[in-house]
Amino acid sequence: MTDRSRLDPESTVPLDGLLQAIPGGFNAIADINERRATVAGLMAAAEVPENPNVKVSEHVAQGPAGDIKVWVYSPAKAAKPTPGIVYIHGGGMIMGSVEADHATAQMMCDSLGVTIASVDYRKAPENPSPAATEDVYAATQWFFDNAEDLGVDKNMIGVYGQSAGGGLAISLALKARDAGGPDIKFMAPIYPMIDHRNETHSSKLVTDVGIWDRDGSIEAWEWYLGGQQPDQHAAPALAKDVSNLPPTYMDVGEMDMFRDEDLAFIQRLLEADVRVEFHIWPGAYHASEIFAADAELSQAIWSNRLAGITRVIDYAKRMS
Predict the structure, then answer these.
(1) Which of 142, 163, 168, 276 is the most buried (most CB within 10 A)?
(2) Mean pLDDT of 250-267
(3) CATH number of the domain bearing residue 272
(4) How would you class 165 by CB atoms within 10 Å of its CB: exposed for 0-12, middle for 13-18, buried for 19 or more?
(5) Residues 171-186: pLDDT tens digits?
């Protein structure tokens, strides 16, 4: 069992409430459609006031399987053109939506003064890998192609994602590097899901926190891979060459099962001479800064993350 004494006490308050309402947490809901509906219902219950400093518009990009939903967040007060960020939502490759991440995307747009393209993508098990990577890549190309009309500097576009979205952010960067474009200038994969093997110490340490635990992660990987052997785009931890990836900001919680696979990937980036900023947050569990948004620890995580993304954008500008 997970040593809950290592969790930040303030951040466990909403977590304890979740476990009382849903024993075992989200991953204990066996039916994937019921699980999705439960999570979506929880997100919908949280009111997200519209920010007058942010303009939101809905768009459609064309992907290999049809339409891809893209919500664009534009800062009303920032000088144009702004840097751009491709935003990839989380959800273990099996859940999540642009609607569920509306509050975070809106906040980041306003706080960073950047234009954000929040991308929907096909989910497993209905659409296993490489569907998600294909959709994210196509939507990113759409963002570059339409940058001028959206008030974006196409020479300063990066990618951000949390959890599964973080894994897809790295997958996108690898694919763009190997394909010769589009030219992604920076990336911020946040506690990324990148290793299907689940063999690290932290992947065995976090078994029953209730948000994203070992059994649920193993199940999600099985659905996402659909019986295939993964390549570097499905599981970026398998990438043999991580050189020439964009400057990177990453953070992860001490009590996140992805901690050690993320730490190993960061070490490889450093050895490949990629510019890196990396933080491990004591007491934080997976997505605790979102689930326990009012906790002092969560506020510190967000403050540091936004400052770190600003630093990596500034570095990318200096290198351009």
Answers:
(1) 168
(2) 98
(3) 3.40.50.1820
(4) buried
(5) 999 999 999 999 999 9
